[in-house]
Every structure is written in structure tokens, then in C-alpha cells.
Amino acid sequence: MRAYKTQMEAAKKGIITPEMETVAKKEYMDPQALREKVAAGVVAIPANVRHTSLSPEGIGAGLRTKINVNLGISGDCKDYTLEMQKVDMALRFGAEAIMDLSNYGKTNTFRQELVKRSPAMIGTVPMYDAIGYLEKDLLEIKAEDFLKVVRAHAEEGVDFMTIHAGINRRAVEAFMRDKRKMNIVSRGGSLLFAWMMMTGNENPFYEYYDQVLDILEEYDVTISLGDALRPGCLDDSTDAGQIAELIELGALTERAWERNVQVMVEGTGHMAMNEIEANMKLQKRLCHGAPFYVLGPLVSDIFPGYDHITSAIGGAIAAAAGADFLCYVTPAEHLRLPDLQDVKEGIIASRIAAHAADIAKGIPHATDADNAMAEARHRMDWEKMFEIAVDGEKARAYFESTPPADRHTCSMCGKMCAVRTTNMILEGKTVEFCSEL
Predict the structure, then answer these.
(1) CATH of 7-361, one of 3.20.20.540, 2.60.40.10, 3.30.70.330, 3.30.1950.10
(2) Rounded to 5 degrees, what angle do the CA atoms 216, 174, 292 make?
(3) What pLDDT is attached to residue 388?
(4) Is the pTM of this model over 0.85?
(5) Which of 7, 10, 114, 265 has its CA 20 to 30 A from that of 259?
């Protein structure tokens, strides 16, 4: 039996855990320096004691920006086989986390299989699963019922859970006072808001927060403090409701740390580019440097079908300004449950944002692959380029779709390729075009 319950408890006791060793190696970091960050709460290593297939990852200050892939079934799309194909897609393209957001039927069979086979971190939103798991309508659910779902997910091996504990009565008052165009767009947040309004009770995750922490501490589950009042359109960003909830999340962060429960804080949503950096700094200040997990932010509201791009723009800015964890957005956002191609495009867009931010932040070895790609391009070594590319299959397919006459160039420039011309001159060769026509 290990001498600590959670990664944070171990870190505070001066213990470097096997998970810390693994993360330190991945991040080119001294394990002792990483331990200090975990102890301070500015890095989280979500690692449920029952997730035995996990390859641990760190999220937080000074580490690579991580990405999460959402999937799961709904009442309109019940194909578990397709969702497992999405899991394979996520793992293939390097997603560090997968969230099962299933909200239909008995989801535990799928979740248990997901935990069993996935080396990526697994997250859930227990509020989504409450109605199906308990087989009760919203008004019939009692406060203790919500805790039963949290415990069930913890026992199944989930590494982190989104818990919307910050939408308490004070935050709701601020939301109601400052009218919004889009009101509440968080699914879990809207369900809790409805439950609170219908029953007249306080948010059970806030009222019984200590009991929630009891469960999370027992299994070393990281709490991801959900942003129930995140803005759902540009006009609602950085308003009283969002900030009121963020203040509550800061207090909840400290309460979790006192119990040695690791914390991430969720935020943003839709937000104009010029507000993003300030929001990142505000979150870090109000939440004491806890890792920040952002959806988007989407920097425009008028590109349905292309929201993986609006999100990648916002995500790159957010991560460069301090966000630590990006939730992917697919082209299907606001429109439907994503299919396999949507998932792939969302992952790639999110990875572009995360990688671009890591370069900007000077994360160790962030540019290694970029430098290797530059060397391969300099040599016109196409096979090496395809090997280095994150999506080498797509790169090869584009290249081969219009094959050049000279394999040392591509069909864009042909013989007039700038790299080819410069290489030839530097090698002492003569560049001629007419004789080659």
C-alpha cells in the first residue's frame, strides 16, 4: 500500500512518485522541480489509482500544452463502435486526454472499456450521466444521488471529473442581474441551474463539496472545476456571471488543495481575441495559478462548420498567454455529434494551437520536429517530411495527387522551386530552365 493517497499529498511529503518520474522524462524536466510544482498545485497529474493502462501526463506551468478530445453517445447517436473508433483516432493523433460525455442510457460499460484500453487520461462530467445512471428525472434527483454518480465514475477509474461546483446562489444572482444574449450554454451548468431553480436548493456540488472531495481523494481523481457560466457568444464574455463564478472557483481550488486533491479550472468559451490574454491572467490570479483548461475560446460566432478554426485561433492565443489544456472543437460544433472526420480535423486544429503556443512559450524541445522538418525540406527529402508530419498520410496524398515531373520538387513550382534553385547555385551548378522544357 502506497504511503500517500494522491499525487499532491506525495509531492507535499517530498515523495517523487512513479507518475512524476514518467512526466518529468516526457517534459525534459528534473523530477524534483516537477514535484515542487505538483505540491504547489500549479501542475496536476490526473492519475486515478484504478487506471492501470494510463501513461501519465502533467498539465500546468512550464509543461507542454495538452489537448482533450470529447466523445460519447447521445440519444440521437447510440453507436458505441463508432465512439471507440474515435478513441482510436484520438490516440493515433496524440491526444493526451479523452472525455466521455455520454448522456444516454447505461454508459458504464463503455466507460470501463475506455479506461481499460486507453493510455490517455480519461475525464467525465458526472452531471451528464446522472439522469441515465439513476433512471430518475431531474426534479426527482436528490443531492446524495449526485454524489453516487461521482463515486461510480471514480470507482471505474476516471482520472479527472468536471464538477460544476461554482454555480452557487451567489453566482446565479450575478448571472440573473447581468442579462445575457445566450444565457447558460454549459450542458452540466444548465442542468444544475434548472435543478436549483426547481427545487429552491443550493447547488449540491457546492453544498456538499467536502463529500465530493472525500471521493476524489480516495481514488486520486483530479477535480476539473467546471465553468457553468462560460460565455456562449462574444457579447456575453467577461461579464458579471463569468467573473462571479470564477471567484467562487478560486475559493474551491484552495479548499481542494487543503485536502490534497489536484485541481484544474475550466474557462472561457466564446471570446474576442483582444480579451483572451487578460482572461488568462485573471484566471491564474483568482485561482492561485491552478492549471487552466479552456474550451476554445472561439473568436467568432458566424462560422458554423469551421469552428475548429475559430477555436484553434483562440486556443493558440490562450495557451501562449497561460492556458495549459485545450479542449478540442470540431467542425460539427453547434451542429451535430461529430463523425470520425470531424474528430480528426478537431484534433489536428487543436494540436496546431497547442504546438504553436508551446513554441511561443519556449517549452523545451518544442521546435525539435519543426527543425527536423526544415532540414528535410532543405534536402527535398519527401519521405522524411511525411515521416515528421503529424498527419503524414494527408501530406503524402496531397503530394501524390498531382505528381511532379521531377520528384525533387512539387507541382506548385516544379523546376522553379526556390529551394532547388538555391541548392543548385550553392552547389556550384548552373540553373537552366529553357533547355529543360
Answers:
(1) 3.20.20.540
(2) 40
(3) 98
(4) yes
(5) 114
Among 304, 305, 221, CA closest to 262: 221
Is beta strand 59-60 parallel, antiparallel or unpaired with respect to 43-44?
Answer: antiparallel
**Looking at residue 77, what is its pLDDT?**
60
Q: In sequence order, what are the residues at sequence separation of 6 or more whose Cβ sits closer than 8 angstroms to the Cβ of residue 180?
A: 231, 232, 235, 236, 239, 241
Neighbouring residues of 202: CB distance < 8 A, sequence distance ≥ 6: 168, 169, 196
**Distances in Å between the alpha carbon of 59 and those of 160, 242, 265?**
12, 23, 11
With contact defined as beta carbons under 8 Å apart, do 95 and 69 qualify? yes
On the question of a cis peptide bond just before residue 404, with omega within 30 degrees of 0, the verdict is no
Q: Using alpha carbons only, what angle is made at residue 274 by residues 269 and 279, rounded to the nearest 5 degrees?
A: 50
Strand partners, 222: 160
Instruction: State residue 26's pLDDT score.
Output: 98
230 Cβ neighbours under 8 A, 6+ residues apart = 185, 186, 189, 242, 266, 267, 268, 269, 295
C-alpha to C-alpha distance for 162 and 227, rounded to whole angstroms: 9
Rounded-to-integer distance, Cα 229 and Cα 237, Å: 10
Closest CA to 12 of 37, 45, 47, 48: 37
For the chain, where do the domains classified as CATH 3.20.20.540 start and end? Answer: 7-361
Q: What are the cell numbers at 423?
A: 541548392
pLDDT of residue 133: 79
Place of cell 456538499: 208
| Total Cβ atoms within 10 A of residue 84 | 15
pLDDT averaged over 10-residue windows placed end to end, the chain, 437 residues: 94 98 98 98 98 98 98 72 92 96 76 93 92 85 95 97 97 94 95 96 98 98 97 97 97 98 96 98 97 97 98 98 98 94 97 98 97 95 96 95 81 87 92 71
